[in-house]
């Protein structure tokens, strides 16, 4: 099942229009922010290097956070590319099936061997630095892929599961190699060289 088009055509087009107005004015995520969850630590390699730290939110999306931390502990996210990066909108990664090496040309089409998850929608807004789970048109199809917001996208609120927020390294997110065209597919993308969980 394809997860690449995690936002249907009409909503996606609206998102680009809405986000465009926020992109220049939005401030960075507060690096001092913290929550109850474990941290996902992502070492980025490629044209951009650095570390992104995501505070996961098990109180908001316990099933999704458990799935992410399980995959990270297995090393499944290591060397997975940021296959879809749309400037002013979001950066998507996490395809543990097709997001590595020679298979990365198909990145965005797969997931893990773990089951898809029932949506855990919340009242947490998709602001800059917020991390959400990618899915197909089926709300209960999120698996391993996630995306990080460059700018607020209120039209996603209550439509996608929020799993965390960037608390450090938003400048690394901003520097990720951007894709081309409406779908944001990236040629020679940056990758998550190593992903670990810190309690």
From TrEMBL:
PROSITE patterns per the UniProt record, alphabetical: CSA_PPIASE_1 (PS00170), CSA_PPIASE_2 (PS50072)
Annotated InterPro entries: Cyclophilin-like_dom_sf, Cyclophilin-type_PPIase_CS, Cyclophilin-type_PPIase_dom, Cyclophilin_A-like
CDD domains named in the record: cyclophilin
Protein name per its UniProtKB record: Peptidyl-prolyl cis-trans isomerase
GO molecular function: peptidyl-prolyl cis-trans isomerase activity
BP-aspect Gene Ontology terms: protein folding
Coiled-coil region(s): none
Superkingdom, taxonomy of origin: Bacteria
Organism, as annotated: Rhodobacter ferrooxidans
Enzyme Commission designation: 5.2.1.8
């Amino acid at each position: 099942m394809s997860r690449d088009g995690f936002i249907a055509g009409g909503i996606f087009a609206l998102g680009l229009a809405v986000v465009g107005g926020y992109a220049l004015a939005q401030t960075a995520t507060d690096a001092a922010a913290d929550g109850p969850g474990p941290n996902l630590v992502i070492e980025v390699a490629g044209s951009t290097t650095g570390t992104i730290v995501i505070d996961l939110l098990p109180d908001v999306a316990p099933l999704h956070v458990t799935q992410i931390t399980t995959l990270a502990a297995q090393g499944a996210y290591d060397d997975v590319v940021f296959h879809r990066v749309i400037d002013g909108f979001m950066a998507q990664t996490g395809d543990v099936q097709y997001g590595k090496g020679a298979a990365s040309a198909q990145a965005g089409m797969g997931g893990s061997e773990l089951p898809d998850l029932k949506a855990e929608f919340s009242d947490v807004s998709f602001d800059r630095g917020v991390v959400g789970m990618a899915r197909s048109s089926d709300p209960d199809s999120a698996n391993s892929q996630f995306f990080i917001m460059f700018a607020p996208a209120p039209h996603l609120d209550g439509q996608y599961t929020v799993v965390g927020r960037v608390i450090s390294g938003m400048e690394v997110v901003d520097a990720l190699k951007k894709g081309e065209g409406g779908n944001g597919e990236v040629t020679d993308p940056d990758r998550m060289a190593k992903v670990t969980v810190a309690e």
